[in-house]
Amino acid sequence: MKKRILICALAYLASAHFSGIKACERENSGTEDKIMTGKLDQDTQLTTASGCTFTVEKGWEVSQYDDITTLKEPAGELTVTLVENNEKTAEEAIAAAWKKIQPDFARAIQFNVPGVASDGWDEIVQCAYDTTTQESLLVFAFARRFGSIWYIGLVEGTKAAADRRGAGLGLIASSFKTPGLQEESFAGKKAHELNQAQLKEFMTFVEDARKQCEVPGAAIGIIQNGKIILAQGLGVRELGKDEAVTPETLFMIGSTTKSLTTLMMARLIDEGKFAWDTPVRSLMPEFLLGDEAITKQLCMKHMVSASTGMPRQDAELMFNFDCATPELRIAEMREMKPTTGFGETFQYSNSMVSASGYIAAHAADKSKKLGDAYNSAMQSQVFDPVGMKSTTFDFKEVVKHDHAAPHNCNLKFTYMPMTVSDECWVESIRPAGGAWSNVIDMVKYMLVELNKGVTAEGKRIISEENLLKRRETQIKIADKLSYGLGLMMEDDHGVLSIGHGGNTTGFTTSMFFLPEHNIGLVVLTNVRMANSFTGIVQRKFMELLFDGKNLAQELLKNNVEQTKSIRAKYLEDIVFEPEAAWLKQFVGTYTHPTLGNMVVRECADGFECDARVWKTKLGQKKEHDGTCKLIFTEVPLAGLTLLPQEEDGRMRLILEIGQHKYTFERVN
After folding, report:
1. Which helix H or strand E contains 596, and what residues bound it?
2. What pairing do the DSSP bridges indicate for beta strands 574-575 and 519-525?
3. Cα(318)–Cα(477) distance, integer angstroms
4. 638 touches 632 (CB < 8 A)
């Protein structure tokens, strides 16, 4: 009874944040209990019957009954159920939680991934389940133990809903706190001034982590109190060759370019070319999205805030990119539509940031084509005044100098070098991710950020007001992580960290600085999706600065073990040399109205898919429901699948990426 009273009281106290509140009746041992349900009209902190707190995004529907909390995303396509129990093991706790809400739950476990216990939790586990191709569902559980109690989150929903509501899911999980939980905190501590012994310890760890994480090459740069205290290369520029990475080696920095693009925009605002609140259409009247209402709402700041409801739509970038221009990319946006409300949740869109960079540059110089105007604006507004002498967007210039080769892994998880031209897909959206730089230049950029717009020579190149405007929260990503204008702000255990990462098909970058402690770190790598490596390096850095717990080593060990286990499990369902008779039925030319053509053909050593700007050998992926898909086995797109579907005697191949499905129809 006390629990039911508490639930009703909490629902009443939260009622100011609900719209459409209603009382519901539910049977329990022959009695009827009143519970409160409804949709949140703002981000709201809720409390469970046991006193745990967590935050839910506006628009989600909430219902609480006894010790079960159910949360549904606004479209009703994804549900999170929070359950508590005191089972002995994670497996037993998760199984009991499913049985409580779905007595007939019988999905097979796909992956079971133990995490590293931290921030007061005694044990952390994630579990993913098999689903059928027709369902197109994502089903997983996350469980954390504090003392003898397990706190479990059960997630079921469409893959598209999980993609568009990833931030909402992250907010629920990251904000969940139980009474008595004590997180590690660096708050109130002063960062150590790193000495040579500490730098040596740091770099020894980084080199060990680089090797264990199979990163071919990396470059590290650290600035503290206005001085470059470390700039060092590790490993090789290209696997199979001896040339070592140096501090001057150029790497593609991917989405870290976004921070430089908004710096350029801020300088143009200083010059009066436009304002953060200037309507986009006033600068480029022909700009149009697939939603007229959203187009009219857009101001320049919205384009770089990840808050407009526009989803990531990158498949278009990987086809026919040798013919793509900035003008074409902006024209393609007429077909792009939002999948969440304006200002409702975080959704990352390369297309939006790319367009903002081009439109800003166009406002500065209408006489040039968009790409040329952007290159010119970045050179005059960022690279020259900051002193970034090596940073460029010019691929032809890159190959003339010390540069790293991009690397990616094939389907057997062997890392392979690629050519610089394999990254040319990003040229047409370069404001969102196309810069090449080195640690020397990136450290100079961080110095300007730390000095609030002043260079090492003491020259102010941007107003403090517009520089700092980029650091204002526009939308939350998780409990302690938010997005500004081309920058991410994180409360890292009580310390403000600002920066932006970056990924391309063959590079990974991490850049962040601590403005309250006047220090910054940049990590450049020449391999795709090295985010675990860069995250572990960041943790080690924070440990040295603030005498943190020794978690980095545990994170590294766990990452290596779990990566090996997940890869082995994944490969169980892959056939690298399927029967020729099965593959022959797909031979032909296929077309998609936006992505263009691709050809499936038999070749000397198997079958391949050729999209002209890339091609790959084909294997077979066997799903647990018996469905067989074509799968790409070679770089740069290893792991992508095509679902065969025959209808009216015509073969189709369906490519699903994020929230989008692309149907290629065979034409011969």
Report:
1. strand 596-603
2. unpaired
3. 27
4. yes
Which sign, positive or negative, has the C-alpha torsion 110, 115, 119, 122? positive
Q: Position of tokens 């982590």?
A: 209
For the chain, domain boundaries: 2-175, 196-307+315-549, 574-666
3-class state of residue 338 by DSSP = coil
Sequential DSSP letters for 352-398: HHHHHHHHHHHHH-TTS-HHHHHHHHHIIIIIHHHT-SS-BS-HHHH
**Do 2-175 and 196-307+315-549 fold alike per CATH?**
no
Output the CA torsion sign for 430, 433, 435, 441.
positive
Which of 560, 539, 555 shows the shortest CA–CA distance to 115? 555
Give the confidence band of 36 by pLDDT, cuts at 50, 70, 90.
Answer: low
* Per-residue pLDDT tens digits for 613-660: 999 999 999 999 999 999 999 999 999 999 999 988 899 999 999 999
Greatest distance between any 2 Cα atoms in the chain: 79
The string of DSSP codes covering 230-293 is: EEEEEEBSSTTS-PBP-TT-BEE-GGGHHHHHHHHHHHHHHTTS--TTSBHHHH-TT---S-HH
CA distance 640 to 319: 14
| Structural contact between residues 639 and 576, judged by C-beta atoms closer than 8 angstroms | no
Distance of alpha carbon 381 from its chain centroid, rounded?
Answer: 28
* Per-residue tokens: 292: 């007229």
Cα–Cα distance measured from residue 71 to residue 90, given in angstroms and rounded to the nearest whole number: 22
> What is the DSSP annotation of 482-547?
EE-SS-EEEEETTEEEEEEEEE-SS-EEEEEEETTTTEEEEEEESSTT-HHHHHHHHHHHHHHHHT
**Number of neighbours of residue 321 by Cβ within 10 angstroms:** 20
Distance of CA 427 to the CA centre of its chain: 20
CATH class of 196-307+315-549: alpha beta
**Residues 576-627 pLDDT 10s:** 999 999 999 999 999 999 999 999 999 999 999 999 999 999 999 999 999 9
Cis omega (within 30 of 0) on the bond before 636? yes
d(CA 98, CA 81): 9
CATH architecture under which domain 2-175 falls: 3-Layer(aba) Sandwich (3.40)
Residue corresponding to tokens 């610089």 = 420
Classified as helix, coil or strand, 184 is coil
| Length in residues, the chain | 668
pLDDT in tens, 489-540: 999 999 999 999 999 999 999 999 999 999 999 999 999 999 999 999 999 9
Residue 398: which residues within 8 A CB-CB, separation 6 or more?
A: 250, 392, 420, 436
From the number of C-beta atoms within 10 Å of its C-beta (0-12, 13-18, 19+), residue 369 rates as middle
Gap between the terminal Cα atoms of the chain:
69
Instruction: Let me know how many helices (H) and strands (E) the chain has, helices first.
Output: 20, 32
Question: Structure tokens of 646?
Answer: 């025959």
17 in helix, strand or coil? helix
Residue whose C-alpha is closest to residue 357's, from 471, 257, 480, 460: 257
What is the average pLDDT value for the chain, to the nearest integer? 94
